[in-house]
Amino acid sequence: MGLLSILRRLKQSPDQEVRLLLLGLDNAGKTTLLKQLAAEDISHITPTQGFNIKSVQSDGFKLNVWDIGGQRRIRPYWKNYFENTDVLIYVIDSSDRKRFEETSMELADLLDQEDLAGVPLLIFANKQDLTTASTASELAEGLHLHTIRDRMWQVQACSALTAEGVQDGMIWVCRNISFRKKNS
Ligand SMILES: Nc1nc2c(ncn2[C@@H]2O[C@H](COP(=O)(O)OP(=O)(O)OP(=O)(O)O)[C@@H](O)[C@H]2O)c(=O)[nH]1
Ligand SMILES: [Mg+2]
User: Fold this and answer.
1) What is the dihedral sign for C-alpha 90, 150, 145, 128?
2) CB pairs under 8 A, 24+ apart, for 73-76?
3) Which fold has domain 3-175?
4) What are 119-144's pLDDT values in tens digits?
5) N vs C: which end of the chain shows fewer Cβ within 10 Å?
6) Which of 26, 34, 40, 45 for mutating ligand 1's site (highest number of atoms within 8 Å of CB)?
7) How high is the mean pLDDT of the chain?
8) Which residues are annotated as a binding site?
């Protein structure tokens, strides 16, 4: 599923401009995911020092996907990108168990942010192509996701490398944007 087909689905929503925000620890796979959505080459991706943005528009509708670098020293800047976010997409390297606590703490911090209050949350349990990856439900349990009650949320197993699961996640994103707009 590419950015244009996401945009096509979003035309059911009353808003003319949609903003998706990709966050997660460094090495989680955010930029790979963004490039996969944009149908770009994913073989030479380097750690993001600032941010990447992909935009598509047609018939007066615009979709912006923001991908912010996840290295620790860049995380203080995440907050500059919160405003007007329609869906937060949080990416986790499901094979990197020793960083589950770190990613869980960063996510908890995001959920406390006023500018992201009520914003639907899709968690990509990425890198499912690796045999060492935890499943989406193990991740959900390990990160105590069931305690999230103040917004719509969903965990989706995926591989940004093979694109498996990415479409299912983006369909959820599209549905929940229109849902939020209709009810806000
Ligand atoms: N096996 C596997 N590797 C992946 C997957 N997604 C990303 N990677 C690899 O993980 C590494 C980091 O990917 P990036 O997309 O740069 O991660 P990022 O979240 O953008 O990292 P920062 O820009 O530092 O925040 C790269 O070597 C990718 O090829 C995946 O689904 N499976
Ligand atoms: Mg990156």
Assistant:
1) negative
2) 74/26, 74/48, 74/49, 74/50, 75/106
3) Rossmann fold (3.40.50)
4) 999 999 999 999 999 999 999 999 99
5) C
6) 45
7) 93
8) 24-31, 48, 70, 126-129
Distance CA 22, CA 144 (A): 21
Paired tokens of 78? 């995440």
**Annotation marks residue 71 as catalytic:** yes
* Encoded tokens for 145: 């996701």
Report residue 101: phi and psi, to 5°. -65, -45
What contacts 35, CB < 8 A, 6 or more positions away?
41, 42, 45
Lowest-pLDDT range of 100-104, 141-145, 180-184: 180-184
pLDDT in tens, 1-45: 789 888 888 766 666 889 999 999 999 999 999 999 999 999 999
Q: Which residues have any ligand 1 atom within 6 Å of their CB? A: 24, 26-32, 45, 47-48, 69-71, 91, 126-127, 129-130, 159-161
Residue 147, amino acid: T
In terms of Cα–Cα distance, which of 34, 8, 38, 35 is closest to 21? Answer: 34
CA of 182 to the centre of ligand 2 (A): 32
CA of 86 to the centre of ligand 1 (A): 24
The domain locations on the chain are 3-175
- pLDDT of the residue at 9: 81
Q: Coil, helix or strand for 21?
A: strand
